[in-house]
Structure formats: structure tokens, C-alpha cells
Amino acid sequence: DQYESFMRMIREWRHLMMLKRSGRGHDPKGVNATEEGDYAVLCPACPHPGKNLPDDWQKAPRAKRWIYALFVAIDANFRLKRKIVSNNTTDPSLSRGWAYFVEESAYKGFLAEKVDVPQEKSTCSSHNAVNMADTKTNCGLAATGLGTIDCARHNMKCPNAVGDLQKGEKYINMDYLFFSTLRHTSLQTRSNSAFS
Q: Domain of life, per the record (predicted)?
């Protein structure tokens, strides 16, 4: 049976195609110089300073600043479950956080440090993803869902904004994903005068 070898070969071929399509073959520093999020395709309609914004975008009147704002949405999918079938030694990640998924070892290390942080219960009447997280069966599962940070206007995934969830949607997981993707934006944050 050559199925397992064939699937590994397909996975490696897809990884090589990703390297090729993102131009890593022409980088004099090579593939190992790739930084986290470099392979992610950025939303072409979202604001990116130096790419699709005017030079004086920061001087826009207060009433028009929303045009240059980045709108993100936090979402999770609990139907995407992953069984415990292997480990990182026999089946290592090829891209190490180079596209949409966060770098796994740093993500899991952060979650391991915060294992004692209690999960706050949601006060939203229909938000069972948080409140019912500990009651669902997760025996034999490496991940019970997937959390993402998306461009809210165009529904594109942001760089390093996707990660596995364990035992439902925890705020700590989603916070890590949110701040992980904010590292890739060069927009300046400003407080709204109505709230300050």
C-alpha cells in the first residue's frame, strides 16, 4: 500500500509550489530566511500603506478616516476537528507559520503557560461555544475546531490568523490569533474621540 507515501509526496509538492509561487527561489537568502506570514496573500482591497493608499492618507479629515481603517472579524468553526493521528516528530510542519496558520510551537507554548487562566463565562444568551466548551467530548482529538481572524469587509484570512482550538472557543486562543495577525499590519492605531 503506497497511499501514505503518495499523500506525503503530494503534501511536499504543494509546499514546493507555494515556495515557487511566492518567489522564494529568487531570494538570495534562501527559503530559511522566510518570515512568518510571508506567503499569505493580502486582501487587495484592504488598506496597505505604501501599496494602495495615497501618500497623505494620515492627513485625511476625521469624518473620512474610516475609509483607511482595517476592519477585522473573529470567527471560529467547530466542525473542523482533527484527530490525534501523529506527532510533530514523524509528521512535522513544512511551513512553520509562513502563511495563514500561526507558528505551532510558539502558539502551543503560549497556551501551555496560560493553562491556569480561568475561562470567563459569556453573558451572551446564545453563545454556547464558550459556555459549553467543557461539556463536549474531545477524546482522541488534537483540535476541536479552528479559530480565524478575517478581513471583515472581504472575508479573506489575515496572515498568521488561523489556529487550532482545544475544548471550544477560548478567549486566550482568539486573543493570541488576533495579536499575531496585527503584527503584519503597518496601519497606526488611533483612538476614536467619541470613546476617549
A: Eukaryota
